[in-house]
Specification:
single chain; little secondary structure
């Protein structure tokens, strides 16, 4: 049986291990110290020596060497030998911290921050990729002491200009966090990288309100316009059922072709008057429905009533404002 190749710890790896032990002893560790140390020194982990050469045991994974490309075709990450030598662990499923290059393990440390919260598989939006914020290195020997930001087309969508303030650990202006939406001044669109408590991940308060502020239509029936993305939304509980969550926070606004029956009325008969109401109302006892059809039905004994007898017919399908706009016709106002 072949002998295993000796794998001495590199200086960087030894410092990382020391950092983990110090963090654990100081009470800063967020995971059991033994688990973290085991993840760092696991004999199955590949190792890059000072010369940039892969030195592995016979049981090491049979994957490309340290000079092989790390990025796949969609800007994500394909595990390779060297990426875990300086940061991250195999247990994470990606090379992002923790562990940081200096042994950092706490989310309050900028080297760790919200890396895993960004890269974990999501239930409600497109999965974030390493390449959304950084250039994924093509070689393992890329360390330069600088945080290299390189924003993707998603982060810069809709003329967004992301920036990161290292002094306050704050990201701002990114499309991903609603930097260009109507609620940029009211929603939490400037997340603090080291505040990992769900504050910047809450529906209806983080990237945009529900609904977003005007000029967005003031309507919470999201699926009426974004039916490829969302199946339903409950404004009372701020919960959504997603039809295709990968179309949410994907760099574009996915809106179907809108008509006069998109939000109210009956598309089958092309009649825009309720029922349905804009919030799904169907009963005449509900004000959104009421006597609409009784007014607009063809009459055998009087002039047919038209929509403009009571309302100004909109010229745009994005006219919803949460207000019942009355505009009386000359017939309605006749005889003073």
């Amino acid at each position: 049986m072949p002998q295993a190749v000796t794998r001495p710890h590199s200086p960087n790896r030894s410092l990382m291990l020391l950092g983990v032990l110090v963090a654990a002893c100081s009470g800063k560790a967020t995971h059991p110290a033994a688990e973290l140390v085991d993840a760092v020194v696991d004999t199955q982990l590949p190792h890059i020596d000072a010369a940039g050469t892969d030195v592995a045991t016979e049981d090491a994974p049979d994957v490309p060497g340290p000079d092989a490309p790390a990025a796949d075709v969609d800007g994500g990450f394909e595990p390779m030998d060297g990426c875990y030598s300086c940061h991250g662990t195999l247990a994470n499923g990606n090379p992002a911290p923790p562990i940081g290059t200096g042994g950092e393990i706490d989310t309050q440390q900028p080297a760790v921050g919200a890396h895993q919260q960004h890269l974990s598989k999501s239930l409600w939006h497109r999965d974030v990729q390493c390449a959304d914020c950084h250039v994924v290195p093509l070689v393992a020997k890329h360390k330069n002491g600088v945080i290299d930001f390189a924003w993707s087309s998603v982060a810069t969508a809709m003329a967004s200009t992301p920036t990161f303030d290292s002094g306050t650990a704050t990201c701002s202006g990114a499309y991903c966090h609603g930097g260009t939406l109507f609620d940029a001044a009211t929603a939490k669109t400037k997340p603090v990288w080291t505040q990992v408590d769900g504050t910047f991940n809450s529906c209806g308060a983080a990237c945009h309100m529900t609904p977003p502020s005007a000029p967005h239509p003031q309507n919470t029936a999201c699926a009426n316009c974004h039916d490829a993305v969302i199946a339903s939304f409950d404004p009372a509980t701020q919960t959504a059922v997603w039809k295709d969550r990968t179309l949410h926070v994907n760099g574009q606004i996915d809106v179907k072709t809108l008509t006069c029956t998109t939000c109210h009325g009956d598309a089958a008969t092309n009649n825009p008057a309720p029922p349905l109401g804009t919030h799904g109302e169907t009963l005449t006892t509900q004000p959104a429905v009421g006597a609409h059809q009784q007014h607009l039905a063809a009459s055998a004994w009087h002039r047919d009533v038209v929509c403009t007898d009571c309302h100004a017919v909109p010229v745009s399908t994005s006219h919803a404002n949460g207000v019942i706009d009355f505009a009386w016709s000359a017939v309605a106002l006749a005889m003073a």
